[in-house]
Specification:
The complex is a heterodimer of chains A (168) and B (130).
Chain A: H1 6-28, H2 31-48, H3 57-76, E1 89-90, H4 96-108, H5 111-122, H6 127-134, H7 138-156, H8 159-166
Helix pairs in contact in A: 1-2, 1-3, 1-5, 2-3, 3-6, 4-7, 5-7, 6-7
Chain B: H1 4-14, E1 17-18, H2 29-61, H3 72-75, H4 83-92, H5 96-104, H6 119-125
The chains are: A mainly alpha (168), B mainly alpha (130).
Chain lengths: 168, 130
């Protein structure tokens, strides 16, 4: 059987670990629990080496993490309330107030919109990949994304800042 | 179709970098796969180094390699007891038994050449009346 080299999996962990953790946190609600789940996914992949069969490795990793969170939620029947205190981002210019605004704004989004935003912005998945991952059409994914972006923009109230930064 | 304003806001959002998770808690076979051969190599190298060092030290201790002698027996080898020495010992000793005991505890450093016999063996054959 063609097995994935553990070193390759560690490289993937370094490349996508942050986005995967953010995605898992957005689903599980608690960062430490989400990190445990991400670790479990990668350790299992190292053990069985099944990643080599996946055509789209990044999308496969997000799918594995999503399944791990869903399985854990089934077992524990836990509510997914986002943690309010633990920073999830390293903000530009050490603007920690903006980081908190973003985190709160993301937490206020409906689960399905939040997941699409995270997968597209930080996971850098296309709407087609997101559609396949979440079991929805790419159009639905794109539509959820636009709604989510609008809500984020309104709740963050940073129009002036990012227009100024981008020269708009 | 993406709206330019969305693109700008998206670019702004991307400036926030998600915090990386802790390192993978690899304890088992994944790291052993390269650690085990390395440990074996280090162990073998250590054994070889000790063996070479011991051989080198032992070689330096052998006389004739410029090192000073460390053994008294080598510096002063024991000669076989001659008849003359045995007679001298008998003359000066208080008793025959004391002489035999003295000769019995001599170290046998040098083998007796073929065709010759030690003074002890010669004396043992003689019939001496005490």
């Amino acid at each position: 059987m063609d097995r994935t080299n553990p070193t390759e999996i560690e490289v993937l962990y370094r490349q996508h670990g942050a986005a995967l953790l953010l995605f898992a946190t957005s689903m599980a609600g608690e960062r430490s629990r989400a990190q445990d789940l991400v670790h479990q996914v990668f350790l299992k992949l190292i053990e069985n080496g099944r990643l080599s069969r996946a055509e789209d490795k990044k999308a496969y990793l997000f799918a594995c993490v999503r399944n791990a969170v869903l399985n854990e939620q089934k077992v524990g029947a836990r509510h997914t309330a986002l943690e309010g205190d633990t920073p999830s981002f390293s903000p530009p210019n050490r603007d920690y107030a903006a980081e908190q605004n973003l985190r709160l704004a993301l937490g206020a989004l409906p689960d399905e919109q939040r997941q699409v935003v995270i997968l597209h912005v930080w996971g850098e998945l296309t709407f087609l990949q997101i559609g396949n991952l979440l079991g929805i059409s790419s159009n639905t994914a794109a539509s959820r994304y636009r709604y989510a972006l609008e809500k984020l923009r309104d709740s963050m109230s940073v129009k002036e800042n990012y227009y100024a930064d981008s020269g708009g | 179709m993406p709206i330019p304003e969305d693109d700008r806001f998206e670019a702004y959002l991307r400036q926030f970098e998600p915090i990386a998770p802790d390192a993978l808690p690899l304890k088992g076979h994944a790291r052993e796969s390269w650690r085990l051969p390395l440990l074996r190599f280090v162990a073998v190298a250590a054994v070889v180094a000790v063996a070479v060092a011991s051989f080198y030290i032992a070689d330096r201790r052998v006389p004739g390699h410029g090192s000073r002698s460390t053994s008294v027996e080598i510096a002063q080898p024991t000669r076989p007891l001659t008849m003359r020495e045995a007679n001298a010992l008998l003359a000066s000793a208080p008793s025959y038994k004391a002489v035999v005991d003295n000769m019995a505890f001599r170290t046998k450093g040098t083998p007796i050449p073929n065709g010759k016999q030690s003074a002890l063996a010669a004396l043992a054959k003689e019939k001496i009346k005490l």
